[in-house]
Amino acid sequence: MPKNKFYITTPIYYVNDVPHIGHAYTTIAADAVARYKRLQGYEVFFLTGTDEHGQKVQQAAKNLNVSPQEHVDKLHQRFKELWVRFNVSNTDFIRTTEERHKELVRNILQELHAKDEIYQDSYEGWYCTPCERFWTEKDLTEGNCPECRRKVEKIKEYNYFFRMSKHQQWLVDKIKNDPHFILPTSRRNEVLGFLENPLGDLCISRPKSRLPWGIPLPFDEEYVTYVWFDALINYISIHGSLEDIKSSGFWPADHNLVGKDILTTHAVYWSTMLKAIGLEPPKNIFAHGWWTVNGQKMSKSLHNVVEPNNLVDLFGVDVIRYFLLREVPFGMDGDFSHKALIGRLNSDLANNLGNLLNRTVNMMKKFFDGVIPTPGAEGPEDAPLTEKAGEVIADVDKLYNELAFNKILQKIWELVDTTNQYIDKTGPWHLVKTEEGKERLKTVMYNSAESLRVLGVLLYPFMPQSMESLMNQLGVETSIAEQGMNSIKSWGGLKPGSQTQKAKQLFPRIEDKQADKILAEVSAPKEDKKEDGSQITIEDFMKVELRTGKVLEAEKVKKSKKLIQLKVDIGTETRQVLAGIAESYEPEDMVGRTVIIVANLKPAKLMGIESQGMVLAANNDGKILLAGFDEEPGQGIQVR
Ligand code: MSP
Fold first, then answer.
1. Mean pLDDT by 10 residues, the chain (640 residues)
2. How would CATH label the architecture of 337-488?
3. 191: which residues sit within 8 A by CB, 6+ positions away?
4. Residue nearest to ligand 1 atom 25, measured at CA
C-alpha cells in the first residue's frame, strides 16, 4: 500500500553565516517532526539547504579573491557537516546555485512574465545593502533600515515587479479562513495587521551591473533575480518541474518552518507567489521564536555566538537537541544559558530518565540474570502505568500538530515519573524476598522495561542516538525505525526471554565542580581563552607603527580604476603612498585631509609605482570610508 506523504522544510540558511544554535534550532525541530512522522509510517520528505546568491556572497568572495561559486562550494559544507553531526535526517539538501533550482526559477519567471504577473517599471526607493531590501520612505526607522538599523541609500532604477498587490484580498481571506495556515496565532494576527495596509508590488529584479551574482531573468538578461524570490522557490524546485511538483504528492508542504524574522517574506511573498504560479500555499507556516544569549542578540561583535560544535563537544548531541526543544515553547523567544542546560541535563536526563533505565537494567540483571521475564502476577499498580502510557501516546500525537515540542516532552516525562513511582511503590527489592513476591516481581520488571521501550520510541525523534542505546540495553534488537509507533499502540511489545545488556549511563551527570569549570570557561573574557592563533598580544600590535599624516598632493593613477597616488606629510618626512580609494574619493577631496598611515610597512610596488605605507580605511560593501578623527590632530602623531 502506498504510504501517505509528509513534507517539512527549514529555511535555507545564508551560506555566508557561521552556523549557530539559531540555525540548529529550526533544523532540529524539523528533524524531530520528520522522525516522528516516519515512525507513524509516512513517507517523509525533509528539506534543508543553503541560500547562495546575493550581494553579501559576492562581496565576501571578492574580498577573498575567489569566484562566488568557489566560495559557496566551500562554505555550504559547514552546514552540511553540522547536520551530520546533529543526526539530522534530511532527505535532500538544496543549494540555490544548483542547476535543478535555477531552472525552475527561470521557468517560473518566464511563465509569470507571460501571464503579466510581472511587469517593468521605474523604481525609486531606499536600499539597504546588507539586507538587500528596498524600503519606502515610511518604512524607515529614523532614516535607517527598519530591520538592521543601518544606513540606507536612495536608488532609482528600472526594475521588474511581481503583481503581489493583486493577491492581497485572497491572502487575507486565506489567513482568516484557515486558522492552521499561520501559527502561532499571535504571529498570524501580526500578519493580518500588516495586511491591513495596502500591499505594494514586489521588486523582483536587480540590475546585473550592480549585482551580477544571481539568476539572470529569462526575459531580460541585464537583470538577475531578487534573492528572496529566488530563495523561496527552493521549497518546490527540489521536486522538479511544475508538473512534477503537482504529481509528487509533496506539495503543498505540511510545514514550512521559519524563524519569526522571516515570517513576512514567507506568509506574504511566498504565498502570493504560489498563488500566481497556480500552486497551493503550504498547509502551515510556523514561525518560531529567537534565541538570545544572556538577554542579548547573538552577534560576532559581542563574541556571544553559541557555536553548536563546541556545545556538542561539551555535552553530546542529544543533550543539546533535548535542551533546545524542551526549554522554550516553540513560538516564543528564549534565552540560552549553559547553566540552564546543565540543570536540564542533570535533572531531567541524568536523574529522571537515566536513572530509571539504569536501575531497571541493573535489577533485571540482579533478579533475572538479565533476561526479560514473562509477566507473572498482576497488581493494582499496573493499570495506572499502562493507562498513563496510552494517555501520553495519544496526547503527544495531538501536540505534534501544534509543534508544541516543550509540551510533548513534558508529557513524555509524565510517563518517566509514573514509571519511577511504579518501581518505588511496588518495591522490587522487597518482592524478591518471598515466592509470592517473585511472581509479582516478574510483572513489575517486565512492565518497567516495557515502559522504557515505549519511552524509547517516543523520545527517539528528539534523541535518536541515545534511544537506540536505550533499546540496546533493554535487549531489543529491532531498530526503532522498524518498531515504529504501531509497536507501542498496545502494551506488551517487549519480548520475554530477550537478553538485556550491561547498564550504561545514557546521560552522565555534570558534577558541581565540573559545572563550575564549564561555566567559568564559557563566561571568561575572550583574551583568557587558549591561544588559537586568532589573537595577538599587545606587543604584536605595538609593532605596527600607525601615524597621522596630512595629504599634500593627490592624483589618480593612470590605467587604474582604484588607485590614487598620495604625497603625505607624516611629520618627519613626506611619503608617497598608493591608496585603493578612487571609486569612493576624488583626488581633490583628499588634499589637506588627515589620514592614518601604517608608517613602518615595507615599501611595495603597485602598477610600477612605489608605495611607502598604507592608508587605513573601511570597506563597507564596496564603499570605501577613510579612518579619521573627530578633531583635526597634527601630523606625525602616533595612533594607538
Ligand atoms: N536565507 C534566508 C532564508 C531564506 S528561506 C527561503 C535567511 N537565512 S538565515 O541564515 O538568516 O537563517 C534564518 C533562519 O535561521 C531563521 O529564520 C531561523 O530559522 C534561524 N535563526 C537564525 N538566528 C536565530 C536565532 N538567534 N534564534 C533562532 N533561530 C534563528 O534568513
1. 92 94 97 98 98 93 94 97 98 98 98 98 86 82 88 91 98 98 97 96 92 96 97 98 96 97 97 98 97 83 82 95 97 94 97 97 98 98 98 98 97 98 98 97 98 98 98 97 96 97 94 93 60 58 85 90 90 88 90 91 85 89 83 80
2. Orthogonal Bundle (1.10)
3. 175, 182, 263, 264, 267, 268
4. 22
